[in-house]
Amino acid sequence: MPQTAEHLNLFTESVIRQMTRVANEHGAINLSQGFPDFAPPAALVEAAERAIRGDHHQYAVTWGAPRFRQALARKHSHFTGMEIDPDAHITVTCGSTEAMMTALMTVCDPGDKVIVFSPFYENYGPDTILSGAEPIFVPLRPPEFRFDADELRAAFKQGVKALVLCNPSNPTGRVFSREELQTIADLAQEYDAFVITDEVYEHIVYAPNQHTYMASLPGMFGRTVSCNSLSKTYAITGWRIGYVIASPEVTAGVRKVHDFLTVGAPAPLQEAAVTALEFSDDYYEELRAAYTRRRDLFLGYLEKANLKFTRPEGAYYVLVDIADFDFESDTAFCTWLAKEIKVAAVPGSSFFREPVKHLVRFHFAKSESTLSAAGERLLRLAD
Ligand code: GLN
């Protein structure tokens, strides 16, 4: 029989999704795959009901329903201070997962080098391989998770086509400062590379940290490909609505790739999502306040359980140090944790290029009652 492609041997199945299956198998509280267990805003659910009864059952415009793109442009212009044109700059995708894959396939030819910070959201590994690119990893060393500017320059010197930046960062919880972003921007300009950003946690940022949009830095709009989605901001990870914002030239390429990959994102859900994009600033303030409460509640339990961790500045993940526990690996620890403590986490090694095996990732995008229940169970680790 013919053999499947060799590039399949270059990556494994998603450990994040695998841990969800382990959690279900053991009846554990799932703090591995990051998705909420609370409802999206009621107005959004009502809009979806109206949309599905309306006349939105056929393909939307390939690059996104016009009403949706217009609302997206208004919202994004409001938060970034840039003038986003719905017709020239936006392509709607099936989640930010497709946005990232499309972005890489748009800017990279086979063999092009792409800088990826390690640890990284695990999709970026397979994404670079499937797009034919070669990842160059630059470490963000625990527990601070900052990059070394000289190390980054050395990577750029190898002749890279793009750098992938997740900010706010999954899994580290870092919110890169304007100065850090400027360092990356300066190098991208000096070495003529693209910056592909994953900004799905843009609104989940804890005071006093603030999100800076890479594309808004001087001279960066033309070379930044911004990937984003509605999943995290409106608690609708299953709707699969994402988007890419880029210059008109790059957008032309993004639309070509996107068209042949998926044709388009779900038409009725794009229609419904206009409602979310029109929420006032209060919505985003409440979102931030609710996530700050969830973070503080969960971190309080980690402290009580005498666990060491890096305090997240943004996003909804925390990396916990398990070096003091007597396990042969982070995977063995996570399997034991799901089975015996009934809480599921992701082994940190699935995010690192380097052999880091003393960290595990929990997410806290859960209701306060779920987080309290998980926290009480984790207190047993203090014994
Ligand atoms: N972004 C989430 C995580 O890192 C969920 C990823 C996914 O399964 N699509 O856990």
**Total number of helical segments?**
12
- Indicate the mean pLDDT: 97
- Any idea of the CATH topology of the largest domain? Aspartate Aminotransferase, domain 2
Main sheet summary: 7 strands, mixed
Instruction: Please state roughly what percent of the residues sit in beta strands, choosing from under 5%, 5-15%, 15-25%, 25-35%, 35-45% or over 45%.
Output: 5-15%
Name of the CATH superfamily of the largest domain: Type I PLP-dependent aspartate aminotransferase-like (Major domain)
What is the CA-CA span between the terminal residues? 55 Å
Given as residue ranges, the uncertain stretches (5+ residues, pLDDT < 50) are: none
What's the total count of β strands?
A: 13
Radius of gyration: 20 Å
**The CATH top-level class label of the largest domain:** Alpha Beta
Proportion of residues in helical segments: 40-55%
Overall shape: it is: globular
- Spell out which ligands are present: glutamine
Note the run of SSEs as H and E: HEHHEHEHEHEHEEEHHHEEHEEEH
Short structural description:
The chain has 383 residues and is an alpha/beta fold.
Written account of the structure:
The protein is α/β, with parallel strands linked by helices and 383 residues long. The chain has helices at 15-26, 42-53, 66-80, 95-107, 124-130, 149-157, 178-190, 248-262, 267-277, 281-304, 330-341, 368-378, and strands spanning 29-30, 90-93, 113-118, 134-139, 160-166, 194-198, 224-229, 242-245, 308-309, 317-321, 343-344, 346-347, 359-363. It is built from 12 helices and 13 strands. Strands 2-8-7-6-5-3-4 form a 7-stranded mixed sheet, sandwiched between helices. Helix 5 links the parallel strand 3 (113-118) and strand 4. Helix 2 (42-53) packs antiparallel against helix 9 and helix 6 runs parallel beside helix 7 (178-190). The relative contact order is 0.18. The chain binds glutamine (GLN). The site of glutamine (GLN) has 6 residues, from helix 1.
